[in-house]
Amino acid sequence: MSNSDHLCFSTQCRYPLYLTTRGDIGSYLISEGDVSDMDQWTAVECNHLLHITREAEELASVDISIEWRLGSDVVHRSESGEGNERTQIMSYRNRTQLPEDALQTGDFSLQLSDVTREDDQSYDCYISRPGLESSTPVCTVCLRVAAHFSSPVLLNEEVREGEETRFTCHSSGGFPEPAVHWFVDQTEQPALDSVHTQSTLIPDSGLYNVTSVLLVNVTQDTTVSCAIENLLLNETLESLSYGVEASPVVGRASQAMWIFSTTLCVLVAVLVASAVVYQIKEDYDRKRNQNLQQVVLEEDETKHSMLDMERLDSLTETNV
């Protein structure tokens, strides 16, 4: 794909130039133009305005030549409607032409293909007739070349709520250097000292890549976006908004911590419950043993008392 696939032209700097020449030539001015894609020929427009006393057919019958120049160099020369490349600048050969009906319509617009940055020039149109020593200037057109930037891509590093986060906005393949805008929460523009923007010229194409970095403190509800503005094309491309949420890494860590804490609490509760049950059982067994021992002691005392009474009775009977 050639560089011209992305190039456009703008004629915002062109200005009207009214010239009244010898009555058989008429007046000329530059027509208004629009920004156009470079998929086809680009027209550096220059339209002829006929005097009301003359007809277009009369101009067509005049043996004239039309020249488009860069300073004194010839960009395109047409003699009686036929192109002439003998005096043409080499870099413009096979890239220029005039409308086939230029003499009939008075439209002397230069059609230029495969536009590059080097074509960003001021072009002059001249008309000459046989027998005249000098050419007559018709119009001057300032051609402005521009290229569309790619849609900006917004990237970010790991986001930690409440901490300074780095956002990077990147766009490529445009011309001229763009303006970069940052938006926080859709309307708020960050301080200039928090933004660093760098444009890099691509040597082979003459186009620019642009990278802009934003450092900003964010919260969980923050949205961040960037926009690339091509002032010459009056075109602004905006990235998708990035809604800041809790970091996946932080979220996973928090989830793991929650699971660990819950498990630990359950384990502690089970251990405490087991200890309580064990203690209750121990107390119950101890009291039970104490009660059994008390019963045994009481039974032993009863037996001893009965034996003592039996001995006493036996002694009494013997004495008698």
UniProtKB/TrEMBL annotation:
Species whose genome carries this gene: Megalops atlanticus (Tarpon)
Residues annotated as domain Ig-like: 16-139, 152-245
Residue stretches spanning the membrane: 256-278
Protein name: Ig-like domain-containing protein
Signal sequence interval, chain numbering: none
Location in or out of the cell: Membrane
GO biological process: regulation of cytokine production; T cell receptor signaling pathway
PROSITE patterns linked: IG_LIKE
Key words, A-Z: Immunoglobulin domain, Membrane, Transmembrane, Transmembrane helix
Primary location: membrane
PANTHER family registered for this protein in UniProt: BUTYROPHILIN, ICOS LIGAND
SUPFAM superfamilies: Immunoglobulin
InterPro entries in UniProt: BTN3A2-like_Ig-C (IPR053896), Ig-like_dom (IPR007110), Ig-like_dom_sf (IPR036179), Ig-like_fold (IPR013783), IgSF_BTN/MOG (IPR050504)
One GO CC term on file: external side of plasma membrane
Family matches, as Pfam families: C2-set_3
Keyword Glycoprotein: no
GO molecular function: signaling receptor binding
